[in-house]
Design a protein that fits this description.
alpha+beta, S16 Ribosomal Protein, Chain: A, 3 helices
């Protein structure tokens, strides 16, 4: 059985609240899980200690049994010091899209023309 440590969404519309659970990877996101390992409330301030609560002993137990944390849960575990920090690289994240690049090029060309006319 492929195990995952992942988030299961709860709460009402526009008021999310997540449970950190150990579940079979074939089960639906909010469906059946084996054990609740903690909670995550994204509505709280980032420095609030109630934002993420995890039972680290149980998480370590499940990871020893082969459970793989999802990306978001692994970030929580990295902050808690349970998992070594992964190197993440997305160099294209800050690059503007094609339309924005075209607008910037047009604006630069227009500014060059205006500067050339002003210098004459």
């Amino acid at each position: 059985m492929a195990m995952k440590i992942r988030l299961a969404r709860g709460g009402s519309k526009k008021r999310p609240h997540y449970a950190i659970v150990a579940a079979d990877s074939r089960m639906p996101r909010d469906g059946r899980f084996i054990e609740k390992l903690g909670t995550y409330n994204p509505l709280l301030a980032k420095d609030s200690e109630d934002r993420v609560k995890i039972d680290l002993d149980r998480v370590k137990h499940w990871m020893d049994l082969g459970a793989q944390p999802t990306d978001r849960v692994s970030r929580f575990l990295e902050a808690a010091g349970v998992v070594a920090k992964k190197a993440r690289s997305n160099p294209k994240k800050a690059v503007p899209g094609k339309a924005a690049q075209d607008r910037a090029a047009a604006k630069a060309a227009k500014a060059e023309e205006a500067a050339a006319e002003a210098s004459e």
